[in-house]
Design brief:
By secondary structure, this protein is α/β, with parallel strands linked by helices. It is about 60% helix and about 10% strand. It has 15 helices and 5 strands. A 5-stranded parallel beta sheet has the order 2-3-4-1-5, sandwiched between helices. The longest helix is centred in the C-terminal third of the chain and has 21 residues, at about 285-305.
């Protein structure tokens, strides 16, 4: 997620956005332009790709005008600037012009490092826009998006949305915006499920999550809804298997921090935290019973039985009971 200093000034003389997450880079530009136009509605915005910045272009754009207008000059893909254009940028950074907000977007890395270093040396306001490759980062992004709208969403709703949408930040942001606009009150997992009925993977994992949490009635409701919307039974047995195996893996693992367990078990840290909550009530015998139930259901949906729906319902009930086996 884009990180900003506490003394962030959107109208700083130079803003440096570093990273490859397009949505975050675009938001840096959007925020600067918005702030500039709030200060002066007639602000002139020039948004340029690296190939459009030829030697002399920057000098021309930053030269004083008769009208002393405020400007925002954006240079995208600054790592691809030509050597001569880099010289112009460095010269400008040494003496930025008042009433011009100069925004450099740089992918980071070694290429075009001279521009990066020059901007930092000039004291640029810097915003990190890294690619969000980890589910935990996308989950944090969704939470922040809901906070930014002033709306409340449960942790389960945020997780369900990430599971449903995947890694595309634009789609995640759009989904949060839609839910915040359409739904009154707290946004929960059921709401996310209703809006994203076509997300087969999400609905199958909802069945599995409710089952391993011992919530049989909710798991059966999710199962029937998933089947009615066309989710393939084999996807549901796969999700059930993953859910039970995760319980088994974490139950037998040595204690430790989520990051350490994540490396040991091959799970993301956010999933370690979720499974820890789900595993309360489970015993080794319960895990073994649940795995047998999954295997029987898998055989049933692949032609070994006459009624795949019944096979899945039976497995869901067995797993939910196994989740409450401790203390019996």
């Amino acid at each position: 997620m884009a990180k900003k200093r506490a003394d962030d000034d959107l109208l700083a003389p130079v803003t440096l956005a570093v990273g490859q997450e397009e949505l975050l880079l675009d938001r840096v530009v959007r925020d600067v332009v918005r702030a500039a136009r709030e200060a002066d509605a007639d602000t002139d915005v020039r948004d340029l790709g690296a190939e459009q910045v030829q030697p002399g272009t920057l000098v021309e754009l930053t030269s004083p005008s008769l009208f002393s207008e405020r400007k925002v000059i954006v240079v995208r893909n600054a790592q691809d600037l030509s050597a001569d254009s880099v010289k112009d940028v460095k010269a400008y950074l040494g003496a930025p012009v008042e009433d011009i907000a100069f925004v450099l977007l740089h992918a980071g890395g070694v290429k075009g490092k001279a521009v990066l270093e020059a901007a930092r040396k000039a004291g640029a306001r810097e915003v990190a826009c890294p690619k969000m490759t980890k589910p935990a980062d996308r989950l944090a992004f969704v939470r922040q998006e809901f906070r930014a709208t002033g709306r409340s969403a449960t942790p389960e709703a945020c997780s369900a949305l990430v599971d449903a949408i995947g890694s595309d930040l634009r789609e995640l942001a759009s989904a949060v915006s839609q839910l915040a606009s359409d739904i009154e009150g707290t946004i929960d997992e059921a709401v996310v499920g209703r809006y994203y009925t076509g997300r087969a993977e999400a609905s199958s994992f909802t069945v599995a999550d409710r089952a391993v949490e011992g919530r049989a009635a909710e798991a059966l409701e999710a199962l029937r809804w998933s089947l009615s919307t066309g989710v393939a039974p084999v996807m549901i047995t796969s999700a059930l298997a993953q859910g039970v195996r995760a319980i088994g893996k974490l139950s037998s693992a040595r204690g430790g921090r989520p990051a350490d367990l994540a490396r040991e078990l091959g799970m993301p840290p956010w999933k370690i935290d979720r499974v820890r909550q789900q595993m309360r009530g489970w015993t080794p015998d319960g895990v073994a019973l649940a795995l047998r139930a999954v295997a029987e259901a898998d055989a049933g949906v692949k032609g070994g039985g006459d009624d795949p729906e019944y096979a899945l319902e039976k497995a869901v009930v067995t797993i939910a009971r196994a989740a409450r086996s401790r203390g019996r």
